[in-house]
Design goal:
The chain is elongated and about 50 Å long. The N and C termini lie far apart (40 Å). The strands form two sheets. Strands 2, 4, 5, 6, 9, 10 and 11 form a seven-stranded mixed beta sheet that branches. Strands 1-3-8-7 form a four-stranded antiparallel beta sheet, with no helix packed on it. The chain is 0% helix and 62% strand. 32% of the residues are buried. The chain is an all-beta fold.
Length: 120
Amino acid sequence: QVQLVESGGGLVQAGGSLRLSCAASGSIFSINRMGWYRQAPGKQRELVAAITSGGSTNYEDSVLGRFTISRDNAKNGVALQMNSLKPEDTAVYYCNAHVRLRVGLEYDYWGQGTQVTVSS
């Protein structure tokens, strides 16, 4: 079994910063892609940022230049530094990991979600 544990959400004023962290544990052979998704009330879950084991990244357009995703492969961890936060960034943020349990067996796992609220 694989678990993703998130931390770092909270309430911040517009223009402020928050850092989200996520650590994966369990029977992990390797992790290719890790990322952060978010879901605001009444909206679909969307990809915010993702990073591969090789360090390639991609970002949702609205967070480019404000958010930075990073990864610690040795600790199976991923972080999201969020700067210049806007009220529209308010959402529940979920950590995601595409985990290889063994050769030929891969699953997507999700964290429990952490609330980010940006006040205007």
